[in-house]
Amino acid sequence: MELTLHLPPSDWYRNTSDNDLAYWGLDYPPLSAYQSLLHGRLINASLPDAVALRASRGFESPESKLLMRWTVLSSDLLVFFPAALWFVWAYMKGGIGVSGEERRDGWMWLLAMVLINPCLVLIDHGHFQYNCISLGLTLGAIAGVLTKNELVAAALFSLAINHKQMSLYFAPAFFSHLLGKCLRRKYPIVEVMKLAFIVLGTFALVWWPFLHSYEAALQVISRLAPFERGIYEDYVANFWCSTSVIIKWKKLFAIKPLKLMSLSATILAFLPSFVQQVKSPSNLGFLYSLMNSSFSFYLFSYQVHEKSILLPLLPATLLALREPQLYGWFVYFALFSMYPLICRDQLLLQYIAVLGLCFLIYYSHGGNHGKSLNIPCGAKVVLSLPLLGSLLLHITYLQIEPPKRYPFLFDALIMFICFTQFVVLTLCTNYKQWMLDTHSRSIGAKKDL
To answer: Pfam families this protein is in (predicted)?
Structure first.
């Protein structure tokens, strides 16, 4: 905040005597910088010491903590909450995959699930970030698509990307769904051009201070793609980290081939979902596609963080009324995948509290999670194994010292268990998305009869 408050935009992403990028430099797109500038001005009006240039490094006081917390809460109230309300209204009005009874009884339950997202609450209000803004803009864009306000959706999603570049995890889903819709209209080229104009116009407005020179734009881009940090930085429940116990990716391959490998794997992972939406776009298919696309990036893309699980968790939450069992399983293991980070931040009590609150609401009246599933006994045993393992690791991680030779043994085990569950979940949702075509054809055949 102090950087954007005291330095000109030309120095925000450039290493200078006043801006040590190695200390805490900006590494998010310009919209995030503008948000920091706004919050910096608000804090400067009441507590200038908290945002003083250079002098504020390491500054901490009860007042500064309170002000910073309020900036996150206000972002929730101004961006995420309205977007959640708009989505639930659009979802219920459209009757997306739910019956009339579920629409009547389940809207408050669904809204509570979206708002009381334990992972988002812990990361934004405990670890202290502003994911609620980029996710709120994305949620607004999703609501725009569901209500056929595609141009508004394009603008909102462009803003989401310009707030946090990880919003690109959803880009294949938005692109394929909107392209599929455009191809079915009377003038598809005109429809595509309208969307392109909105996207390019939004990007131009956000990037305007940095478009005066190629060098200035390149400085921003170089901060947004820190490839030199490696294919993963900390323990994360994705393919590259989970398999690194056997295959030492960082030692075997240089950065360039790893970038190509991760790009290829990510594209191959989201391609089936992408093709399905171009071929047969639908609102329900779009929600599945959002989850499948973001999961593809989380599992296979370059430089994934533990916090990135928030992205596939968003569409999973939006599908909670239709897929309650899938959502309940996912939210538990998503939270568990952040357990080492939570322990490092000393947020264990908050971890237990938000997990308990989430499942208290989950098992409350309003959701259709109580519907029984015909799961074979053998499958139930298999499903119980990762759950039992996670419960044991919760205790082991805190109470037992890992071997000195393998200091991150428990971290690796946690990530491997979560990774296996995420793979199963994404295979399941990809299958469900493709089965929508079969279901649509069967309904069409019945109508013909």
So the answer is: Alg6_Alg8 (PF03155)
Q: What is the DSSP string of 148-212?
A: T-HHHHHHHHHHHHHH-GGGGGGHHHHHHHHHHHHHTSSSHHHHHHHHHHHHHHHHHHHHGGG-S
For position 2, what pLDDT does the model report? 82
Output the pLDDT for position 448. Answer: 33
CA distance 27 to 233: 15
Residue 273: which H helix or E strand, with range?
Answer: helix 255-279
C-alpha separations of 301 from 134, 172, 225, 238, 298 in Å: 19, 13, 12, 9, 6
Let me know: does 199 contact 158? Beta carbons within 8 Å.
yes
Instruction: Give the whole-angstrom CA distance, residue 381 versus residue 54.
Output: 57
Alpha carbon distances (Å) from 330 to 192, 276, 354: 35, 23, 15
Eight-class DSSP state of 116: -
Beta bridge partners of 367: 365
Q: What is the C-alpha separation between 449 and 446, in angstroms, rounded?
A: 5
Q: Are 71 and 39 in contact (CB under 8 A)?
A: yes
- What is the H or E stretch that residue 261 is in? helix 255-279
Task: Give Cα 339 to chain centroid, integer Å.
Answer: 17
How big is the CA angle at 118 (ends 115 and 119), to the nearest 5 degrees?
110
Q: Which amino acid, one-letter code, is at 26?
A: L
Spell out the SS3 assignment of 387-414: HHHHHHHHHHHHHCCCCCCCCCHHHHHH
CB atoms within 10 A of CB 81: 17
AA letter at 20:
D
Amino acid 406 reads Y
Question: Which pLDDT belongs to residue 48?
Answer: 84
Low-confidence ranges of the chain (pLDDT < 50): 366-367, 370, 372, 442-449
Residue with tokens 């268990």: 417
What is the DSSP secondary-structure string of 45-96?
HH-GGGG-TTTTTT---HHHHHHHHHHHHHHIIIIIHHHHHHHHHHHHHHT-
Tokens read off for 5 = 């408050």
